[in-house]
Design a protein that fits this description.
- Chain C: InterPro entries: BP-dependent_transpt_permease, MetI-like, MetI-like_sf, Oligopeptide_permease_AppC, OppC_N.
- Chain C: It is a multi-pass membrane protein.
- Chain C: Pfam families: BPD_transp_1, OppC_N.
- Chain C: Keywords: Cell membrane, Membrane, Transmembrane, Transmembrane helix, Transport.
- The complex is a heterotrimer of chains A (327), B (322) and C (310).
- With 327 residues, chain A is of the alpha/beta class.
- Chain A is built from eleven helices and twelve strands.
- In chain A, strand 11 and strand 12 form a beta hairpin.
- Chain B is mostly helical and 322 residues long.
- Chain B has a domain of 184 residues: MetI-like (MetI-like fold, Orthogonal Bundle), CATH 1.10.3720.
- Chain B has a two-stranded antiparallel sheet.
- Chain B starts with a helix and ends with a helix.
- Chain B contains 15 helices and two strands.
- Chain C has one domain: Orthogonal Bundle (MetI-like fold), CATH 1.10.3720.10.
- Helix content of chain C is 71%, strand content 0%.
- Chain C is elongated, with a radius of gyration of 24 Å.
- The N and C termini of chain C lie close together (10 Å).
- The chains are: A alpha/beta (327), B mainly alpha (322), C mainly alpha (310).
- Chains B and C meet through helix 1, helix 6, helix 7, helix 8 and helix 9 of B and helix 5, helix 6, helix 10 and helix 13 of C.
Chain lengths: 327, 322, 310
């Protein structure tokens, strides 16, 4: 807590206006990312973790609106920036890696061209310098024959290579923060490990903060300093990774950890959390997890829980941890 | 690539032969020929004289023989002689096709520029009032009969307000050279160009809009925004380049139209193009001319198809490297 | 949409799972169509044009009027809203009668387009091999030959043969159909080809169904949306083609009226310059009808193909 936060989400509310009604994708999310830190945002699909990241980049769809809250990045409120100031942030101070390497690169431009673009845009490199630097970047992300690859088109590369190119693009302007939205979900298992290793290595070399969005607790265990667990558009638990893994305080986190297979342990069958993720179209006013929670109490169905903090800074939004509740 | 083009050209030969057979059959099976169209009312022409003339023009031989003769000459570059103009068909086409060409080429340029601009903006501003007005305009333009639009413009701008001439390609009494002549031709071109552009712009605008909308929601466009690129770079470099791919095909398919003339518009504005000549030739049963011209356009259409695929291959790296 | 938020995807799935009554594709397409204000307006306009043409004459005070040269070329007035023509006939009534022919020609020609186009597309796509090669090569050939010279020549031939005007319209319908089916056949064929790759077709193979059964109960229903959309747009195209041909005096010829034939009065310089009531109303009628049909066709495409929904 000593260091000043690089990113701070303060009570963020983001809504989508669809034919079916208003979708409250994110409602009241607050957490921080400190410089050089890796924060994993965990949750099932539909929990609002990608929308949180895209709100920071202000890359939401046209039918989405940030209705309330602040996002402070490096001392500035991102939501109040003018479009051209926002552009200076994107790609320059914040790099972003997406889930689908197959579709995230432009099929009609060479990868070199695509890496060079932000460098020329933000760093005012000449084309020649940018190309030289692009080749260095391709080498840096571990692709051999960088001199040839620079002129290749995305369809000539494998999924893993394309994701490495995306990493090169994200790192090209030496940003303070990288957002990686499920960067390995679409890849084969062996490639997943390589990409994560690369991210971890580059992150420590460049001392850049990483906001890693994932639904995979294995990834969290391997990468995270700090974990934010999201459910139904809200943060239900956050804390240091060891804390959360050893001592999960929210029943949802507990369920997630139980559901994860552990090597060397054979169970009759894996645990699954009963019930379904609630529809974001009509979220209850009380705890979103109450309908699936094994420890549900009357108060859980009356009011959304407050956030409780313990001595280690481990936060949880659950009535179980209120004064006088069952220990 | 060269191999591919050669293969496609060879494959197109049966199609061309098929088209030539159908064209030949349609026009030779047609009752009424040039002789009866020219001299049918002429009481001085006896039946025998007509037969003599038919013999002279080779109109009384069996069909397969006539086809073989016609085709054999065409392969040698001889499309026969126009009855009406008493000149080789190729000369007649060559004389008039360029008048059509300057009309069509102007229209092609205007149409693509305007459609691109209007369609792209409509896609970016989807669901706004502008977009809806464009959609409405597109439907109107797509649904106008060419002759009605032409007639309306002619009535308004040439009859009621005499801003533009009633028709033709140039004023009489003006020397056919120099700036004055070019300006005069442009003045005569205005109404037919507006008519043809209005007619063709609707569908194309729609293609641009749809293609752009499809591309704008792709992941790589989001990536481009995430890199902090300027809006116009994202739209024109990242989105438009992809949106243009399917349109390249359309462009290549329109190229034969540069030479085919616009039969109805040319007739209304009395433009001395190949379309009007074809129409007159049909009325006068000048079948060698009509057959030659129809086959010429058929071949161009087939070549346009091949060109469309080749251009697509050049433009899309995913196809190019295969 | 620039971004596909996960929240939306899952919300869609959830709401689908939760809604008790599952809509059939046709029902949901119909509901989407009802939401399209453009298309609904166009539909009402089109119904009006049909009523105008087919029911309108019964309400015309001139329905039993004789030809009278005394009344010729009257400009629009209270008695004759759109004036009279060279035979003293009321232009409004003439417009109604012409509408009957234009609409009928459009519909019938489209019937022929659909019949040929779907048959060729189905056979080529389903059987493949040499049948496919021959049929599609034939479609290529027909596609390469320019339509208008061919159509005009047909019209000229009909004039040579001195066909009676009332029988002539049937031939016009037929000829327009015969030269316009290629686009639909290509669409149907490519749709059949992609359907054949799908699992349910493999299942029909495993069940040993007859070709007839496969085509009529499994393939044909799946191409019906394409047929509906193309057919609708085809009516618009056919009406335009007929009017062009009739304008040149080679389609529908007097005394049978059609909108295009009425417009051909503009070929006469005096009528064109001095008597616009003779040719502007039929032009507007064509425009309104064709716009409505195009808008409906477009609405149908959006409704029947949710993936293309914009």
């Amino acid at each position: 807590m000593s260091q000043k936060a690089l990113v701070e989400f303060k009570d963020l509310h983001t809504e989508f206006y669809t034919e079916a009604g208003v979708v409250k994708a994110v409602s009241g999310v607050s957490f921080q990312i400190r410089p050089g830190e890796t924060v994993c945002v965990v949750g099932e699909s539909g929990s609002g973790k990608s929308v949180t990241a895209l709100s920071l980049m202000r890359l939401l769809a046209n039918n989405a609106k940030i209705v309330k809250g602040e996002i402070i990045f490096d001392g500035r409120d991102v939501l109040k920036l003018k479009p051209h100031e926002m552009r200076r942030l994107r790609g320059n101070e914040i790099g972003m890696i997406f889930q689908e390497p197959m579709t995230s690169l432009n099929p009609v431009l060479t990868v070199g061209e695509q890496i060079m673009e932000p460098i020329i845009e933000h760093r005012m490199f000449s084309k020649r310098e940018a190309r030289k630097y692009a080749i260095e970047l391709i080498e840096m992300v571990g692709i051999p024959r960088a001199h040839e690859i620079v002129d290749a088109y995305p369809h000539e590369l494998s999924g893993g290579m394309r994701q490495r190119i995306m990493i090169a693009i994200a790192l090209s302007c030496e940003p303070k923060l990288i957002i990686a939205d499920e960067p390995t979900t679409a890849l084969d298992v062996t490639i997943q490990a390589q990409i994560l290793d690369l991210l971890r290595k580059l992150k420590s070399e460049k001392n850049v903060a990483l906001m890693l969005i994932t639904h995979d607790l294995g990834v969290v265990a391997e990468m995270a300093d700090y974990v934010v667990v999201m459910y139904g558009g809200r943060v239900v638990e956050e804390g240091k990774v060891m804390e959360v893994f050893k001592n999960p305080r929210h029943p949802y986190t507990e369920g997630l950890l139980k559901a994860k297979p552990i090597i060397g342990e054979r169970k009759e069958r894996l645990y699954t959390i009963p019930g379904q993720v609630p529809s974001p179209l009509n979220l209850p006013l009380y705890c979103h997890f109450a309908d699936r929670c094994p420890y549900v109490m009357p108060v859980c169905k009356e009011q959304y829980p407050d956030t409780f903090i313990d001595a280690d800074g481990h936060k949880v939004a659950c009535w179980l941890h209120a004064e006088g509740a069952r220990a | 690539m060269t191999q591919y083009i050669i293969r496609r050209l060879i494959e197109s030969i049966p199609t061309i032969i098929g088209a030539s057979i159908i064209i030949f059959l349609v026009f030779t099976m047609a009752p009424g020929d040039f002789i009866s169209a020219q001299f049918g009312m002429d009481s001085k022409m006896t039946q025998e004289k007509k037969e003599e003339l038919r013999e002279l023009y080779g109109l009384n031989k069996p069909l397969p023989e006539r086809y073989a003769i016609w085709m054999g000459e065409i392969v040698k570059g001889n499309f026969g002689e126009s009855y009406l103009y008493k000149k080789p068909v190729t000369d007649v086409i060559n004389t008039f096709v360029w008048n059509s060409f300057i009309l069509s080429a102007t229209v092609l340029v205007l149409q693509w520029m305007a459609a691109a601009l209007v369609g792209i903006v409509a896609a970016i501003k989807q669901y706004t009032l502008y977009d809806q007005l464009v959609t409405l305009f597109v439907f109107l333009a797509m649904s106008l009969p060419s002759f009605f639009l032409g007639l309306l413009l002619l009535k308004l701008f040439a009859v009621d307000y005499r801003i533009f001439p009633l028709g033709g390609m140039s004023s009489t009494g003006i020397p056919h050279e120099g700036w004055a002549y070019i300006k005069d031709v442009m003045w005569h071109m205005a109404l037919p160009v507006i008519t043809l552009t209005m007619l063709s712009i609707g569908g194309l605008t729609r293609y641009f809009r749809t293609s752009m909308l499809e591309v704008i929601r792709q992941d790589y466009v989001r990536t481009a925004y995430a890199k902090g690129l300027k809006d116009h770079v994202v739209i024109f470099k990242h989105a438009l380049r992809n949106a243009l791919l399917p349109l390249i095909t359309l462009f290549a398919l329109e190229l034969p139209g540069l030479f085919s003339g616009a039969i109805i518009t040319e007739r209304i504005f009395n433009w001395p193009g190949i379309g009007k000549v074809t129409l007159d030739a049909i009325f006068q049963r000048d079948y060698p001319l009509v057959m030659g011209f129809t086959l010429f356009i058929s071949v161009l259409t087939i070549l346009g198809n091949i060109l469309a695929d080749v251009l697509y291959g050049v433009a899309d790296p995913r196809v190019r490297h295969r | 949409m620039t971004v596909q938020p996960e929240a939306l995807k899952s919300s869609g799935q959830n709401s689908k799972m939760r809604s008790k009554k599952v809509d059939s594709p046709w029902r949901s397409a119909f509901r989407r169509l009802l939401k399209n204000k453009f298309a609904i307006t166009a539909f009402i306009v089109l119904i009006f044009m049909f009523l105008f043409s087919f029911v309108g004459p019964y309400f015309s005070p001139y329905k039993d009027a004789k030809i009278s040269v005394r009344d010729q070329y009257k400009p629009p007035s209270a008695e004759h809203w759109l004036g009279t023509d060279q035979l003293g006939r009321d232009v409004v009534l003439r417009l109604m009668e012409a509408g009957q022919i234009s609409l009928l020609v459009g519909l019938a020609a489209t019937g022929i387009i659909v019949l040929i186009g779907v048959t060729v597309g189905l056979l080529a796509g389903f059987y493949g091999g040499w049948i496919d090669t021959i049929l599609m090569r034939f479609a290529d050939i027909m596609y390469a030959i320019p339509t208008l010279p061919l159509l005009i020549t047909f019209g000229a031939i009909l004039s040579d043969l001195k066909f009676p005007p009332d029988q002539r319209i049937y031939l016009i319908m037929f000829v327009i159909g015969v030269i316009s089916w290629m686009g639909l056949s290509r669409l149907v064929r490519s749709q059949i080809l992609s359907l054949k790759e799908q699992e349910f077709m493999l299942a029909t193979e495993a069940l040993g169904l007859s070709d007839r059964r496969k085509i009529f109960s499994h393939l044909l229903p799946n191409v019906v949306p394409i047929i509906i959309v193309s057919g609708t747009l085809g009516v618009a195209g056919a009406i335009l083609l007929e009017s062009s041909l009739s304008f040149l005096g080679l389609g529908v010829i007097p005394p049978t009226p059609s909108w295009g034939q009425m417009l051909s009065s503009a070929n006469n310089m005096i009528d064109f310059a001095k008597r616009p009531w003779l040719w502007i109303p039929p032009g507007v009628a064509i425009l309104i009808t064709v716009v409505s049909i195009n808008v409906i066709g477009d609405g149908l495409r959006d409704a029947l193909d949710p993936k293309m929904k914009r």
